[in-house]
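Example 3.
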Amino acid sequence: MTTQSSVTQIDRGVGSARPSVIATGLANTKALLHLAVRTPAGRIGLPLVLLHLVLIVFGPLLTPYSPTEFHSIPMSGEEAVAKATSDVDFRIYTESGRLPQSTNKQALVQFYQAHLGAVDQTGAYNADVSEARLNKLAQEWEEDQRVYIAGATGKLRTLEAPSVRFWFGTDNFGRDILSRVMTGATSLISVAAAGALLGITFGTVLGMSSGFKGGRTDEVVMRVMDGMMSFPSLLIALLVLTSLGPNPVNVVGTLGVVSVAPVSRVMRSVTLAVKNLEFVESARLRGEPTLYITFREILPNALPVLAVEASVRFSYAILLVASLGFLGLGAQPPSSDWGLMISESRRFIVAAPWVAVAPAVAVATLVIGVNLLADGIRQARDLPMGND
Amino acid sequence: MASANTSKELLVKVDHLSVTFHTPRGTFHAVRDASLEVHRGELVGVVGESGCGKSTMAFSIMGYLPGTASVEGSISFEGQDITQMSDTQLRKLRGNRIAMVYQDPATSLNPTMKIDAQMAEVLNEHTDLDSSAVRGRSVELFESVGLADPETIGQRYPHQLSGGMQQRVIIALALACEPDLLIMDEPTTGLDVTTEATILDLVADLKDRVNAGILYVSHNLGVIARVADRVVVMYGGQTIEEAPVGELFKQPRHPYTAGLLSCVPKPPEEDGKIVQLSSIPGSVFPSKSPTADACLFADRCPIAQETCSSQAPLLLDTGGGHVSRCIFHGNVEPGIWGEDKLLEAREEIAHKETPLLAAKGLRRFYGSWQRKYLFFGPKIKPPVRAVTGVDFEVAKSSTLGIVGESGSGKTTVARSVVGLVPRDEGVLELSGADLAPDVDDRSSNQQASVRMVFQNPTASLNPKLPNRHSIMRSLQKFSGLTPAESEERAVQLMEAVGLNPEFLDKRPGELSGGEQQRVALAGAFAASPDLIVADEAVSALDVSVQAQVLELLKSHQRETDASYVFISHDLGVVRYLSDDILVLYAGHVAESGPAEAVLNAPSHPYTEALLSAAPVPDPDAVPTLIRLEGAVPTLREEFTGCFFAGRCPRKLVGKCDESPPPAQVDAKSPEHVVHCHIPLDELGKLQQAGEPVGAALTRPS
C-alpha cells in the first residue's frame, strides 16, 4: 500500500522514501473520485468535466475546421460583380473582417472592374487586395456612403443555421461555431484554473496557519479576510483590469486575490476541528514543529474539504472569466473565448440564436459539471468510509 | 426457552431473530439468531461487547430499524408480531406500552423545550388527560423517580439539569403511560460512577414498584449483577447463554461467559491478593462475515473441538432455567481460561531515592477574572480553579493511579505532567530536573521520556496516514537508529503489543478499537519513555480487550521499568494496575498513598463513597448505600473549609466549614495521607463497623 515517491518531502527526518504529502494527497483524491462516481451527482458531473478536459487538451486538434477560417460559397468573380451591383444587401468582407471605408454603388463597380483582372482563370480570388490598398481606395471616396468590397471566393456563409456541414452553425463572419467553441475551452479554462489554483494555494496556507495558531493572529487575519470578501469579485476585477490592462496574467492575479478569502475560511474551520484531536496532541508531545503538524498531520485530513472547495472556486472562476470576456476585459477578438463569443453574438440573438447558445451551453455545462462533481465528492465523503 | 418465571405473564418473546443491514459499504449481520423472553415484573439483563448486536435487538423490539434492515424471525409482544406491524400500529405501542431509555440523556431530551412540555407531549399523545391532570401526573412521576423539587423542575430546560437528573427525567418520561415493557439501553454509561449508583438504585426500586418487564442492555457486568434477575449473554449477534443472575456469575455454562467473567477486575481476596486477569485471545467475530456453519466462538475457545467448527450449535437447555449455546457446556469449569493466578504482592516501593516524577503544589486555572462590565470594572468572579495544590510522587517502575470523577481535575493534572496544558504554578521534576510547563519548551530527552496515551483510540491515530507513522516518527526523532534499524524496531514493537507487523502499512480505519489503542501504545513505547501517562486509556475498550491492554501494560513495566500515571474512573481497573493511588476531588487531593491502604479503611469519605458506588460483578454483593447527590462542583472562590464539605456524608457541622482539612498520616502506613477533619482511627472504626466501607470490597465468605 505504500507508494515509493521521489517527490519533495516536507518532513526533514532521516527518511527512507515514504510517501510525501502530495503523493498521499493524490492517492486520497483518487480514492475520493472513485467514490464520487458512485453517487448520482458524481455520475453526471464527472463525464461533463472529463469532456471539457478533453476539449482543453485535444480541442484544437479535433476541430473540423480552423476557428478563424471564413467559410464561403464559391462564386466566380463575374458572378460576384453581378451580384454586387444588383443586390443591395450583398455584402463582402476582407479577410480580416474589418470593413474599410465606404462609397456608393458606382464606385463599387469601378472598383470591381479595377480588380477583375486580379481574378484568375478558376474564378478564385487573388488575395492581392491588401487592406492598405482597399483603405486607400476607400479614403478617396466621400464619407457616409457604404461600399463593401469583394472578398474571398464568394458569398460568406454568415449566420447559417446548424446543419450537417456545420454542426453548430456559423457566426456573423462565416466561422464554424463548433470549432470556435472547441478551441475556446483552452483559454477560458486555463486562465480560470490558474487563478483558482493560485487562490487555493494561498488560501490554504493562510487559513491553516491562522487556524492552528489561534488567538489574536487568527482574529486579525480573519477580519482582513472578511474585509476582502465584502467586495464583489467582479467589481474588483473590473477595477484591476481597467487600470492595469486586460491581459491573461492580470486576470489570473485578480482571480487569485478574490479566491483567497473563502478558501482560507474553509481551511481554517477544518483546521480548528482537527487540531484538538488526540493525534495532533501526540504530535505535539513528540516535539514536532508547527509547520510539520499543520501540513503533514492536518492537511491530509483537510483534503476532502479542500477538494470540494476547489471545485466551487473553480466554477466561480470560470463564471468570472466568462463575464470578463463578455465585458470585453478578458480575451480580445479574434480569440474564440466563450464570453467574447456571447458578447459578439448579442446583436443577432433574435435572428440567429445558435451563435449565442453554443458558447453559453459550453460555459453552463462546464460549471454545472464541476459543481455536480463537487457535490458528488461531498456526498462520497459522507458515505460510510469503506476500507477498500 | 425454559424460564423460571413461567407463572408470570409473558410480555415479549423474541424468537430466532435475525437482523441484517444492507448498506453501500457492505452487508452487516447485526443479529444472527437471538431468542429471549421477558416476563412482567422481572428485569432481564442483556450483556455483550461491542458489535454483539444487543442494541440492535433492543431497537428491533421497538420496531425501530432503518430502511436498510431486513428482519427474519419473530418478535411477539403480548401476542402480536412486531415485525409484521405497520407504522401506525407501532406508533400506538411506542411510548405507551413499550418505552425506551437511551444512553445519552443530554441528547435524548429536546434542548429547546422545557421538561414540562416534553412530559406533556408524551401524555397528550397517548392519554386523554386534560391539562391539569397532565400537570398532576407529571409531578407524580417526577416524584416517583426521586427528583428533588418535583413541582418546579418542570419549568427548567434540560441543560439546567445535571446528567443524573436528566436521566431520571427520561425514566419518568418512559414511565409516563405505565408501559408494559421498559427497554433501557446502557442508561448509565455516560454518567459518573456516583450518579450511576443512584440511578441503579432507582432501577432496582422500580423493579419492585412498577408492574412492568424491564430489558436492560449493558456491557458492564457489575451493573448487570446489581440489577438483573436473569441475564442473556450475546456474542456475534447470537444469544449464547441465558440464566438466572446468580447462576450465571457462579456457574457459567459457556466458555465466552466464563472468559468475560475472568476478564473483569474483581475485588481482592481476604488476604489482599488480586487474581490475575486472563484475556480472550483474538477478536470478536466480525459482523460483515456471513453466518458460518459452525460455532462463532470456536476459533477463540479454549475447549473447542472438531465438531465445534463443523456444526452450528443450537441453544440447549441445561436445566434450572439455564440455557447455553455450547455443545460442551458441561466442560465449562473455572480453570478453562488458565489457572487462577494471583498477582505477586507488590513490593514496597522505596520512596527514599529520588522519585522519577515529583509534583508539588500544582495549580491550574481556566479562564480569567470575570469583570463587572465585560472588560472593565471591578473583578467579580475568579477564574475556575481546576487544580489546586496537588502534590504527588511517582517512583521508578511503579504505577500511580489517579482516581476521581469528571470535574475532579485528573485530566488537567495528566496534561500538566505531559505539558499539553501549561501549569500556572507549582513544580514538576523528572528525575530531579525541572520540566517546563509547556511541552514545546522541554528538551528532546524530556519529550522522549514522558509520553501519553489517550482515551479515544480512533482519534489517537491520524486516519489518513498509515499506522507506522507515529511509531516511525518517534523512532526517527528520539532513537537515533538508521532507517533499516528503525524498521526492525517497529516490527519488534508491533509484536510486543501483540499485533501482526503487517498492520504497520494499514490505516487506522481498518483496525478495531482495541487494535488502534495498541498501535497508539506501540507509538508511546517507541521512544523508550521513562513515564507514560495513560488518560482513561482503557475506558473506551471492551472488557476482554481491556484485560489484554492491562496485561500488556504490566508486562511492559516488568521489562522496561517504565512508570505509569494511570487515570481512570474505574476503581477496579485502578486497583489492578496501581501501586499508589491518588484520589482527587474538585482539584484537591483527598487521599493518597499505597493502593491497598487507600482502598481499605480508614479512607477519605469520598473514596468511601466511590468504593460503595462502584458496581461489582458479583450478584451477591450487598451494595452499601453511601450515596452522594449532585455533581462535583466547579470551584472558583477562595473558600474556607473543606473542599468536600458540600457533599460529604460524614460532615462535621462547624469544623468542616471553617477550616481546610489537615493532612493526616496513617500510622499503619506512613505513605498514606488522608485530608480529613475526622481523626483517622475514628474514621476507620466508623467505616468498619456500622456501615462498612463497601461490603463490596471483599467477597462474602
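The longest strand of chain A covers residues 72-74. Residues 1-19, 91-103, 115-129, 140-153 of chain A have pLDDT under 50 and may be disordered.
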